Amino acid sequence: MSELTSIKEILDTFGKYTGLTSGTSMLPLLHQGKDNIIVVKPEERLKKYDVALYVTDKGKYIMHRVVEVHDDHYIITGDNLLAKEYVTDDMICGKLVGFYKNGKHYVDCESSKLYLAYSRIWVALKPLRPALLFVRRCTGFVRHVCGVIFRKIKKIFKAEK
């Protein structure tokens, strides 16, 4: 048997793919290298709020959320991103159906009420996302600066003893 070399080949052959996530575009939902995703080959067109796995013309795999469905394309964006992507059905190779959070807790994307609520709220907040991401980045920067200051103060006190 020949070795399968791509996620698309695995999905075409077995109908299911599982693996660790890579990248930060789906934060806060999926964390790079921590969450194990389960993707299936879609049997029908995707719907709003589905998380699609698609392949770019350069062969890169991207997993982002469907925010609009049109007759000939989808508008998709990462939960942690602002840019819209225009994706056609022929680019779609999979749909996220579940994931293991930190390899432990399973979340079913098709039946978990908490997940479904998160999806709808996150898409509804899309117009506010630039402000939300700005605040998150600022608080991260403030935490970093405070940590640096705290370590310097701690060093000064140790030196005085």
Polypeptide structure, described:
It is built from 3 helices and 8 strands. By secondary structure, it is α+β, with helices and mostly antiparallel strands. The protein has helices spanning 7-14, 113-124, 129-160; strands spanning 16-20, 36-40, 51-55, 61-69, 74-77, 85-87, 92-101, 105-108. The protein is elongated and about 70 Å long. Strands 1, 2, 3, 4, 5, 6, 7 and 8 form an 8-stranded antiparallel beta sheet that branches.
Gist of the model:
With 161 residues, the protein is α+β, with helices and mostly antiparallel strands.
- The stretches of 5 or more residues where confidence is low (pLDDT under 50) are none
* Helicity range: 25-40%
Number of strands: 8
Report, as a whole number of angstroms, the end-to-end distance: 69 Å
Topology:
Elements: H1 7-14, E1 16-20, E2 36-40, E3 51-55, E4 61-69, E5 74-77, E6 85-87, E7 92-101, E8 105-108, H2 113-124, H3 129-160
Antiparallel strand pairs: 1-2, 2-7, 3-4, 3-7, 4-5, 5-6, 7-8
Notable characteristics:
161 residues, eight-stranded antiparallel sheet, alpha+beta
